[in-house]
Amino acid sequence: MTEMEFDEMMSMRMREVVADRCLPANFQDRLVRSVKGSKIAWRMKLAAVIAVAVALGVAITGVTRNDRSGRSHEPMLIAADAPTDNTEVSSWFLLGYLRECFKRNRNNRKKEEE
Prior knowledge:
The chain has helices at 3-19, 27-64, 91-113. It is mainly alpha-helical. The longest helix is centred in the middle third of the chain and has 38 residues, at 27-64.
């Protein structure tokens, strides 16, 4: 038996084995759902990573930020003189604001469900 005959024989056997094989009827639907699901999962992971990165950036900025006023701030119940010259928004304020936004959305959804 030559190499060419062996290849022909193997090809014929492979065709016989593969000839009676076919994909399930619902294969296309399952494949589409699987691809869509993996895309959604990837987008959710990406959004979570971005949110964590932003939160870490805000937290690191808040921790490492130096007090630029130079005055010592003593704890008071009522501020004697309000800082009117400061127009900067602190990163802690931004983090608290975002927290309130998410909290309000969650509370609004609960009220709508009731």
